[in-house]
Amino acid sequence: MSPTPAPRVALVTCRPGPDVAQDADLPVLADELRAAGADAEAAYWDDADVDWAAYDLAVIRSTWDYSWRAAEFTAWAERCGRATRLANPAEVVRWNTDKRYLGDLAAAGVATVPTRYQAPGDPVDLPTGHEYVVKPTSGAGARYAARYMPAEREAAVRHIERMHAEGLTAMVQPYLTGIDVHGERALLYVDGRLAHASRKGAVLTPGTAYDEAKTPHPSLEAWRPTSAETAVAEQALLAVPGARDLLYARVDLVDGPDGRPCVMELELVEPNLFLFLHPSSVRLVADAILRAAAR
After folding, report:
1. Using CA atoms in the order 40, 42, 48, 54, what is the torsion angle rounded to 10 degrees?
2. What confidence tier does 210 reach under pLDDT thresholds 50, 70, 90?
3. Cα(27)–Cα(17) distance, rounded to whole angstroms?
4. Is the pTM of this model over 0.90?
5. What would the pLDDT profile of 50-91 be if each residue is shown by its tens digit?
6. Helices 25-35 and 281-294, packing angle to 10 deg
7. Residue 108: partners with Cβ closer than 8 Å, 6 or more residues away
8. Chain-wide mean pLDDT for the chain?
């Protein structure tokens, strides 16, 4: 009997650049997969020379330039998903790259940050009685995101007009002050089970322009999630179309006006896993990848 060939795994990333963070977890995860007997390597999602069909599994990891090229990225995901098994699947990628999915979660009864959307051609409609956040429905790393007081309406209007000029839909949310006290909590699920959780401070600071660079994960630390946090996170995951096929998911939570956790974002495409903060999870993630590659 011939030996079983080593599973070939592509860890999908993007080309380095001045506006792209370095993925510190990628080499660690690749080493763990190789130590377990897999043929694992990094591959650029937009490299036309990559033969995706040669892999048993393509795992989207740090494709952190996708939000600049969302339509191109989702088209790639669909092509890759036809060529090999893709994690997470293309239909999940398509749904999750547009933050209007928050409306789907809210309609399913999941506690979410209240959000309204303004597409190009829509009149600009901004809150007048409280601080708020403006950002695009396709974005990562706080790109094109800023917070405003009601008196800063003119700056917010220019912000939205800039996004509309680029074909982007704007989303407007109340700024939840609980994030300044309790931070944002990120719960990572692998194969549907909680692996670890992290907490970070507020990303958006008053007076920072939407087109300025931000620190995406300030004051990051390990976190022990509460039962209320895991309940909301798991309710959100159950509402995802194609939830059974999720290899990984990161649910980002903040405290709502009532002090209870609610979903700020559901990261199903290319979330930072923060493995450098949780080294015991490296093997857990690698094992899940190997199981998926063997299916």
Report:
1. 10
2. confident
3. 18
4. yes
5. 999 999 999 999 999 998 889 999 999 999 999 999 999 999
6. 60
7. 239
8. 93
